[in-house]
Protein 1
Amino acid sequence: MFESLTERFSSIFTRLNRKGRLSQADLRSALREVRLALLEADVNIQVVNSLCERIGKRGRGAEVSKSLTPGQQVIKIVQSELVKTLGEEPAALVVEGSPLTVMVVGLQGSGKTTTAAKLALHLRENYGKRPLLVAADLQRPAAVEQLVTLGDRARIAVYREQEASSPQRVVRAGLRHARGQGNDAVVIDTAGRLQIDQRLMNELAAMAAIARPQETLLVVDAMTGQDAVTVAQGFSERVDLTGIVLSKLDGDARGGAAISVSEATGQKVKLVGEGEELTALSVFHPDRMASRILGMGDVLTLIEKAEAVTPREDAEKFVRAATSQSLGLDDFLEQLHSLRRMGGMDAVLAMMPGGARTGIAGLSDDEMRRTVGIIHSMTPEERRNPKLIAGSRRRRIAAGSGTTVAAVNRLLKRFADTQKMINMLSGRGKFPGMGMEGLLQPARTRRRRKR
């Protein structure tokens, strides 16, 4: 989402690094470019003014550091002030209550219903809750069925009423059902509208009076730019919100909503959704998001996502198979499924530092889908021992998967390269207890140690 803004910032900082020292003229020029980059990213004008004013004030009063280049000095200031704009500290989700009750609100098309299902799964997987989803969106005809389908995928119970007369009745009955079934968390999917209106607000107020939720979370579509700020302000003025969930952060919009919404509304962003998978919901860390925007990546979140979708014993089994030359394409396929559960290749690339992206950028989400199709077209014996796949077998696999022999060749080369890389890293001791410390060291440090 932040690719264009990240490139603009990188260009600004690169030009500054060519300077011997940071002059006030350089600072003013950089600040003009930062301001223009933020406006082009559709960041709210008031937020841009506030952010740039703080950056300029700190830049003018900063002591010149002999250990930092001019670009690094400005990056340090911009990152610090950007973290403040995004909310400074992560906002904790309330998880106490008998039962814990969460109302999910938002406009139609914001990803509200999907977010409700993701949140229920998040509460189960991260807090050990036994959640119940309550289908109280009676405004959109397909909303109840959509929630039931999502609940089935996540193996989470959904309370619905076939002939519901009002959402208030559904909420009251849903809470009664939760207590009877021993559910200790209730996530309520409320009705949305195409735009904010008084009827919607009255309905939400009536539901809140019944549910008395510990959390009322507004789902905001990150792809809607400054409109997201307007929506958030409208809800914030009329509903007792406790936080915001940014959905569709993996989209290709300019990212202005993500930067603007917290400061513009005074509401903390608590969670972000990045991908269609139900596991693609994570805690919002302002410092990590600032690093992503500035092109420095978010390796900590990347590691957390990897650990969440791949149990430690499975990761160790994969490495043991690779280093003992017994790695098969079924193992490779499982790693691709893990990557998909992390939100897909685009989500993973978004969290990697700029320079590290180039090595795997060739494996797009479409390429991943083709790869899965090719592996499924192989026999069990071929998946166990890819060395058997000679010319005639490659032609048969290509025909069966609807791809080309060239695509099959690319897959087998990528698989062989993966095995070689793991063998090399293992030989250097980069997999002690599957720790990632060695892999995350700067390249210059690794080369120095090698000597």
Protein 2
Amino acid sequence: MRNFLLGIVSVISLLIVAGGAYYFGFQKSATNNAQEVSITPTEAEKTPSITTPSTTPTTKPEINVSEQIIAAIKSKNTQALEGYMTSIVQVRLESSGCCGSISKTEAINQLAYLNQAVGWSFDPTNPILVNIAAKAPNYYGNGWIVGVASNEYVISFKLNDQNKIEAYNMASSYKLLFP
């Protein structure tokens, strides 16, 4: 008798749960149908309207070339710099005879010299960069974007008046710049 009552209670409970789920599911779908937006066009939308083009020029967002250079060096994605270079770039590798005036493609290839560099800092208040600027102002001073890696590599970029890289200098150690 006890099993019989337990079976009846179970069946009734199951019917209540199923009925509740059906009821609430039906309510939810009715609510969703009410919230649907009609996508059929109205008469005003069917008639094409003539709009005159805006005469105000649109300006491209200004790209901060310095930030792009820094990001490319830090990420070692130096190919991204090609668009920011003049067609001929003055490249100097400290303590070597390399490289002089070379094409921007060659200049990009020369940046592979920095592949071993890690932990770049382009902070102008970095004491190493301050010291470098004082010792070699013509190549690492005012007007140059200068960075030093935690393993002593150093690079500097010079932009022309069109914000293009016209020159850069590299060294495997900033200590090469000090006599």
Protein 3
Amino acid sequence: MIGGLASAGDIDGAERAFAEMPERDLVSWTAMLWGYAQNGHATSSARVFWRMPCWDVVAWNALIVASSEPGEELEEDPKTLFDRMPGRNSGSWSATITAFVHSGQLDESREVFDRLPSSDAAAWSTLIQAYVNSGRIFDARELLERMPFVLWTSMISAFAQNNLSSSALQLFHRMLLEGIQPDVIAYTTVLDACGVVQARAEGKVIHSSITDAGLDTRAAIASSLITMYSKWGCIDEIEHVFDKVVLPNVVVWTALISAYAHNGHGRLALHSFARMDAEGVQPDHVTFISVVDACASIPEVTQVRLLHDEISCCNLDHHPQLQNALLSLYSKCGCVDRARIIFERLPTVGVIPGSAMLQAYAENGRGHQTLSFFRLMVLQGVHPENVTFLSILSACSHAGLVEVGCDYFVSMKQDYEVEETVEHFTCMVDLFARSGKLEEAEELIGSMPFQPEDLAWLALLAGCRSYGHVERGIRAASRALELNPTKTSAPYVLLSGLNGNCK
């Protein structure tokens, strides 16, 4: 509990939980110590450390991490603490190296690094990245040339997992230049990186080298290739990769289904799911989430109920992600009552399922139920977020509740500390336009603290069509086309309706 509160940034809550404990063991002391360290409270970390009845290596590591945080300085630097440790693990070395890197002491960091008793991927990654960031390219290259073979893949994975996909690609190319043959993990990691940074040329070259090495039929690599091509919308390549796998497992099937769903081919995804079932491959919760995504593009109640039954037969209907996905899917089908049944069965009420339920009410024209449900969420201690208020404002718009919508728009920031976005302002424009307050809608577009999107002008244009205001409607259509010239049909369709209403 202490660790969870501290990880969420609630250091006051962690302190209260720690103070209220009738007895404290080494685990609770260490959790409080780490809580302070992770939140930049070095002095408090040291105070807890010196009050502990005994110290293990984890406690020492936490104190070293705390000593590197900016703003507060301890009497002893990371090196002194490191030397005082009665015992060390790999985390001790990495923590000390990282501490020196954070404080800009790269030479001291290198001194500790050179004393490493064994290869540690985190330590190599930290120091190489620090050299690169500080412009010491020669030192970074020198470390790369010394790096043991087993660490290349670990380093590539470390870069990718820390959203450094470009660095992962660079290291992979360096690995090839060194004459090192990548393994399956290296290939899957770098394929994912290619997909993230849209490196199409590199991805296709790597695919060719995988084929030359005879690895393209491996399930792990095939699923990564499918995922990469899915991000680029390359359906032919996806099917070509899949067809080469002799006996695709659940991971490969799921990648194919997800790729179809992601690219708007819902029926192909459902057909693939049926083929997978016919071949006796058991789906997991990830598979079903992809199938739910596919159904969302073709929301048919019968299909959704059959899918829900199959999920129940696999004993996966209590999986949180699946419950949220099914809730949203029933909403798209207009089955709000079924969505509410799923919501009521959730073990805990969180902002994600709560917002999904709000959206279900709002999208299906149940404005007053949306507002009642929002009040229930707040009473249950769920803090509303950005998307929550989008549903609220949308519900007010469709129900014609102008004053209520304005109150929630103001309350959003004042009472809940949720910052307005361009989407919230667009909802307000729609609220005014639907209610015939066209002048207020246009004034809001001109005064919002963001560059208006074409959707705001289209909302105004729709209002002008409903209330027969030609001059303002033409102006709105013109601005919508200026902002998004590729979306040519919507303004003209609305203008056509506008002219028709004025005949």
Protein 4
Amino acid sequence: MKKLEIATGFAQYKILLAILGVLTSLLSFEVFKWNKERHEKYIAQKEQSCQQSIEDASNNVLSNRFLKANYYAGLMQQKSKYKLKQPGINTKFQTDRNYILMYSQPASLIPSNPRYEGKLFETLSKPTDKKPPAPVIVTGKKLLGNKVEVVSACSPASFTVSLENLYEINQPIDITPYLPPFSSF
């Protein structure tokens, strides 16, 4: 009789452990799904903020005649003829201020390691073939000689860039009037 009670108790214990194992695995699967959804949402937000940063920089470049000329000179692999405001070169560098990161030669826009997951970030971390990458808004953190540590919405960690590739968002305004060719005035 005593052996039967021990066997029954042991069987109940095994059943209880099996039920707990199933519940634990179901719970861990739900937690995994929840974490995955949260991570995907986080990456989508980062992609959106990165695209917005690139779009804002492009709008700033295209709306300023001098920045646009400098950008197109880089696309044509020529030297720009305009002297632009560049922090640390001809203007004072200020920390926690937004600047435009604009390359004049083929390069990767963000470092390859570390970077966020996703096709956009993978593309931005690869060097471009023949033309410079699109400009992006970055925030300057600290001056390191002829380089600057910057933070971007496109990268999870700060990275360093050359002062030659950093431009003030607000450039001087050209007030020379446009005169059509062969005008008499």
